[in-house]
Specification:
By secondary structure, the protein is an alpha/beta fold. It folds into two domains: 185 residues, TIM Barrel (Alpha-Beta Barrel), CATH 3.20.20.140; 68 residues, no CATH class. It has eleven helices and eight strands. Strands 7-6-5-4-3-2-1-8 form an eight-stranded mixed sheet. The two termini are 34 Å apart. The structure holds adenosine monophosphate, zinc ion (ZN) and fe (iii) ion (2 copies).
């Protein structure tokens, strides 16, 4: 049997709903041999996932999904196999997390100005396990308080870009995110390029040290995947893929929905090792 991997999974340490232990149990249940925990702007889920997988037939790779922005577009940068316990990395992530908390307070203020006064920062930050507060946490609170019927409506009415309670995130360019990941010995992979619409920026990102493209992603046609595989070949990038599972907070995907052959993991490891 050939080994397979799912290299894009969120836990409740960012905006997923599963604990690292549940992620590991699910991955074992699905018969996957390798996963990467890729929470937004935090590494808190990695250590418990590694501990939960100990002694089992499952490899857990350290990962992260860093937020960045360029020309007004959100670009998510995956990082793999970096020195995730480095104190200076933790400090830099702490800054991003603090910025996320500040942004959450601003979004709550905007909601207050719109007449929604029953959502408090303390309630959201107290109930979420994450240090990387995001719009999905606020959307969940809006649903819980019955301000809107569901998460989608929370985004459409209040939180989507351009909506009245939207506040942009801290500013970091994709090039800076790549530099950070590489600086800690890892490899940077452009997340879900088919969603980000930044194809024209890929050559510049390669020049900045981009190492891979996430060509395999849920609900994506074979043609689109082959297009990004072709771009990866052209630029000598590795190809990765994953489900982007978030548990209950993204119901259209789940662990193992996307599985890539393990030889792509080996190529990722080789490329990370070469990284200078
Ligand atoms: P944030 O990092 O706080 O900006 O939140 C981004 C996350 O919100 C994304 O990863 C999505 O999971 C979710 N999201 C963004 N836009 C929408 C939308 N229109 N509807 C539902 N979820 C969304
Ligand atoms: Zn997310
Ligand atoms: Fe993403
Ligand atoms: Fe993701």
């Amino acid at each position: 049997m050939t080994k397979s991997a799912d290299l894009h999974i969120h836990t409740h340490y960012s905006d997923g709903t599963m604990s690292p232990q549940e992620v590991v149990a699910d991955a074992l249940h699905c018969g996957i041999q390798c996963i990467a925990i890729t929470d937004h702007d935090t590494i808190d889920g990695i250590s418990p996932a590694i501990a939960a997988a100990e002694g089992q037939d499952l490899e857990v790779l350290p990962g992260i999904e860093l937020s960045s922005e360029i020309n007004g577009k959100d670009v998510h940068m995956l990082g793999y196999l970096f020195n995730w316990q480095d104190a200076s990395l933790l400090e830099q992530l702490k800054e991003m997390q603090n910025a996320r908390a500040g942004r959450m307070k601003k979004m709550i203020q905007k909601l207050e100005a719109l007449g929604i006064q029953n959502i408090s920062f303390e309630e959201i930050s107290g109930s979420a396990r994450t240090t990387a507060l995001g719009r999905p946490h606020l959307a969940a609170a809006l649903v819980e308080k019955k301000v809107v019927g569901n998460m989608r409506a929370a985004f459409d009415k209040y939180l989507a870009e351009g909506a009245p309670a939207y506040v942009p995130k801290f500013k970091q360019t994709p090039q800076e995110a790549i530099k950070l990941i590489k600086g800690f010995g890892g490899i940077a992979v452009l997340a879900h390029p088919m969603l980000s619409s930044v194809d024209e920026l890929i050559p510049g990102l390669v020049a900045a040290g981009l190492g891979g493209l996430e060509a395999h992603y849920p609900n994506c046609s074979v043609n689109v995947m082959q297009f990004y595989e072709g771009l990866a070949r052209k630029h000598h990038l590795v190809v990765t893929g994953g489900s982007d599972a978030h548990g209950e907070s993204k119901k259209h995907t789940f662990i193992g929905k996307v599985r890539i052959p393990y030889d792509l993991v080996e190529k990722l490891k080789e490329a990370a090792q070469k990284n200078v």
